[in-house]
Design brief:
5-stranded mixed β-sheet, about 30% helix
Length: about 325
């Protein structure tokens, strides 16, 4: 059965086999591509450097709503981080190159350039800050290396289906949300698993290390919400590796963001989402804690993008897997 699932998944646009090769390449190199408002309160969003003195709340006092704790948007480009980027002439962005429809390479397109929903947002940030959507260099970053890449300043930001959490706010700064999703279970269609419930008893679950899924699995097994017999020991650097393990029969299910799981189900007709999302989570652009001015500038980009640009990108990349109604995925107005 595992072999049949694996073979089925390799049909179509290039299959997971091509994606697995890309996973290995992601660790070996960074891709470089060739070579900018209205605010939340209705103002023009041109607040000066003084706004950059605001601080982002720490995990202990984010009140369980980290998606509300970013800095106010500002169109000011005179801050030190933004000025450094302008002098350099390009934006350095950590992305995924293996998440179908989010950040991936389609071997059927000319040049196999990175494309997807996250990639569109990165191009828009570059356009508004630097004047060209192509003034960006993409770096393939594994799931468990997103925060280290930001802290070491290997990249200016990470746009990679990264959930805003209270704990992560102690290590990086986040923009306002640009997408809403929730954790969900992915399993073979023939499986007896029905969702995030007692049907996971005795099952082997895979999650990406450093992901919110892994944290939730650990917490829920301790609290008793997840059956004690559930094996959650399998973790991988990249979330796509979980799908491969599922196809090979090495695990029984995957827990990840529903938006990513839907894209994986679109790649492999033998698997499907089981049950409803059991959390509500928000994706944000992650940046270095020192880069307050860049956070505010990105938030200003999002003010316009969520009104003009976001829906077109959703329709192009995600409507086929998540459905044409984007209401549940669009962040509330800040």
């Amino acid at each position: 059965m595992a072999v049949r699932r694996l073979r089925a998944s390799l049909r179509g646009w290039g299959g997971v086999g091509a994606m697995v090769v890309a996973c290995a390449l992601a660790l070996a190199f960074a891709l470089s591509l060739p070579l900018a408002h209205a605010s939340r309160d209705g103002s023009t969003g041109t607040g000066g450097p003084g706004l950059a003195e605001a601080t982002q709340a720490k995990a202990d006092d984010c009140g369980g709503h980290p998606e509300r704790m970013s800095l106010p948007p500002s169109g000011d480009d005179t801050g030190p981080t933004v000025q450094d980027i302008k002098r350099r002439g390009y934006l350095s962005v950590g992305v995924d190159q293996n998440s179908y429809r989010w950040g991936y390479r389609d071997p059927n397109t000319r040049g196999s350039d990175l494309e997807g929903f996250d990639i569109d947002l990165a191009h828009e940030i570059a356009r508004q800050i630097l004047g060209s959507p192509n003034a960006v260099r993409f770096h393939a970053i594994p799931t468990n290396q997103r925060i280290p890449a930001i802290q070491s300043k290997q990249v200016d930001m990470v746009v990679r289906t990264m959930t805003i959490t209270c704990d992560r706010m102690d290590e990086v700064r986040f923009s306002d949300p640009y997408f809403v999703t929730g954790q969900q279970v992915l399993a073979p269609k023939t499986s007896g698993i029905t969702g995030y419930d007692k049907s996971l008893a005795g099952k082997r679950i895979c999650s990406a290390s450093g992901s919110t899924a892994g944290t939730r699995l650990t917490e829920d097994r301790k609290s008793g919400r997840l059956p004690a017999s559930t094996d959650i020991s399998t973790t991988v650097p990249n979330q796509l590796d979980c799908l491969v393990k599922l196809q090979l029969g090495e695990v029984d299910a995957v827990v990840t963001d529903g938006a990513l799981a839907a894209s994986q189900a679109a790649q492999d007709p033998t698997v499907e989402l089981k049950g409803k999302p059991f959390t509500t989570e928000y994706y944000g652009v992650a940046m270095n804690k020192e880069a307050k001015d860049l956070v505010q500038r990105v938030n200003q980009v999002l003010v316009g993008y969520l009104t003009n640009g976001w829906q077109a990108s959703y329709t192009k990349w995600l409507s086929a897997t998540l459905g044409p109604d984007a209401a549940a995925s669009r962040p509330p107005s800040s």
